[in-house]
Known about the structure:
Layout: E1 3-8, H1 12-28, E2 32-38, H2 50-53, H3 56-62, E3 68-70, H4 75-78, H5 100-112
Parallel strand pairs: 1-2, 2-3
Amino acid sequence: TGFILASANGGLNQQRVAVCNAAAVASMLNATLVIPRFLYSNVWKDPSQFSDIYQEKTFMSTLKDDVRIVKELPSHLKSLNFQAMGSVVTDADLPKEATVDYYIKNVLPILQR
């Protein structure tokens, strides 16, 4: 039904939680997860990316029965302005305790656009 692009910031634990949440949401919405990007933090000063910390192949193969995971967006989607299309959902847009129904009613239609 679309692609989930996740970016995570903070320390290792916050990044891990963001990755787990992104995988769960992608699975729940039958979407494809793009390997998450880690944002550079002026606090942590760590430029590491997902593949610097995790074994991508193991991550992908371990979750293969639950969620489709790709390393990057297909080339025909890379140049799109997702913000202009209204296809960007951030943590600030989601209730802290968002339910599966919330994601289905509010996020799934965005993916289907």
